[in-house]
Specification:
The protein is built from 14 helices and no strands. The N and C termini lie far apart (62 Å). The chain has a single domain, classed as ABC transporter involved in vitamin B12 uptake, BtuC (Orthogonal Bundle). Helix 4 crosses helix 11 and helix 5 runs antiparallel to helix 10. By secondary structure, it is mainly α.
Length: 377
């Protein structure tokens, strides 16, 4: 039976547009089967039993599905944030720190903010967005106006954010009489999505934000300007796009989204602020954004995939004794494969010669003037 011409044309267009994402999924399953199965076999464990535990802990049961949602929800927020910055040519490695600061801001508002539940939850989420955005503002400014490598600045600010949260939960924001450094218990929680689990409507919020961010980046003038700066900064300057503003704005939105992931994790899972309430969700979001090659919807899908691998890996370890570290090995190998296939992780994303702001640029002059001078030369 032959495929209709229209359907065949659609499949070709989908392949051309999403070939990297499709190859990433195929490569991930290949690495999982070959490397994962090989390591299990060398340890004397049946790969069939191991993969059965992996499936059961992610999509094979209601508990597994709930665990996958819990693990993937903050990763989606962080991944969306990294993707927004990535589309503007900025490689934001600071989603983890922005997630911590967002959790801190949102928790403070949740504890001290008066008002009904229907008002306090949105206020906490808005406060978390503001906290994450403010934490991303400095690296964005340094990148745009001083040519500072954003990878270095965001990595360093991750450590500062962790210590700030540790200071607050061990000092001014510590629960009175508590033996461990922790905040008071938040007075309310996010509504539960799956009964008798920690899966909350934060997951639905993440899906809604996925649609909003996709529309913003693909259909609005501001999003298209941001994409132009990330794709070809010199052409963007000739089109009178303020690349510095675009970079700072992208970092603000990026940090804000990661910050929302922090408060959603606290309101839904831990219910109080701890010094290390995040188990690497920001870095998981970074991996998802790299795997998705900067595509918004693909970032969310890969975040869910990573959450499923993580929850399934824990179930696999309980059932068969296979260390969950196997999942992290596989994730690392997948990222290396994606980096080799895409060619998108280049010097421009790290502040190299193709970046929107070059290190030797004169921050006192507009980039349009510098571009014109370079053409005259």
């Amino acid at each position: 039976m032959s495929i209709p011409r229209g359907a065949r044309s659609l499949l070709v267009r989908l392949w051309i547009r999403f070939r990297l994402e499709i190859l990433t999924v195929l490569a991930g399953f290949l690495v999982l089967l070959v490397v994962g199965g090989g390591l299990m076999a060398t340890s004397g464990i049946s790969p069939v039993d191991g993969f059965a535990g992996l499936a059961e802990g992610s999509v094979g049961s209601i508990d597994g599905l709930a665990s996958m949602i819990v693990r993937s929800t903050p990763v989606i927020f962080a991944g969306l944030g990294v993707t927004v910055a990535y589309r503007a040519g900025v490689f934001n490695v600071g989603a983890e720190g922005q997630l911590f600061i967002g959790g801190l801001f949102g928790s403070i508002v949740a504890v001290v903010g008066p008002g009904p539940l229907a008002l306090n939850i949105p206020l906490s989420i808005v406060a978390a967005f503001i906290g994450g955005a403010l934490w991303a503002l400095l690296p964005g400014y340094l990148k745009a106006y001083r040519g500072v490598n954003e990878i270095i600045s965001t990595v360093l600010m991750n450590f500062i954010a962790l210590q700030i949260v540790a200071y607050f939960v061990g000092g001014p924001f510590k629960e009175p009489g508590a033996y461990m450094p922790q905040s008071p218990r938040l007075p309310y929680d996010l509504p539960v999505l799956i009964p008798n689990s920690d899966a909350t409507y934060g997951f639905i919020l993440a899906l809604i934000l996925t649609g909003i961010i996709w529309f913003y980046t693909a259909r609005t003038l501001s999003g298209l300007r941001m994409k132009a700066v990330g794709g070809n900064p010199l052409a963007a300057r000739y089109l009178r796009v303020n690349d510095r503003q675009a970079i700072v704005w992208a970092m603000l939105v990026s940090g804000g989204l990661a910050g929302v992931g922090g408060i959603v994790e606290i309101l839904g899972v831990s219910h109080r602020l701890f010094a290390r309430f995040s188990s690497g969700f920001g870095f998981q979001g970074l991996i998802a954004a790299i795997m998705a090659n900067g595509q918004v919807i693909a970032t969310t899908l890969f975040s869910i995939l990573l959450g499923g691998l993580r929850s399934g890996g824990e179930e696999m370890q309980r059932n068969t004794g296979v260390p969950v570290a196997l999942i992290y090995i596989i994730q690392g190998l997948i990222v290396l494969l994606v980096a080799g296939m895409s060619g998108r992780i280049r010097l421009s994303a790290a502040g190299g010669p193709d970046s929107a702001i070059t290190p030797d640029a004169d921050p006192g002059r507009s980039q349009r003037e510098q571009a014109e001078d370079s053409d005259d030369a």
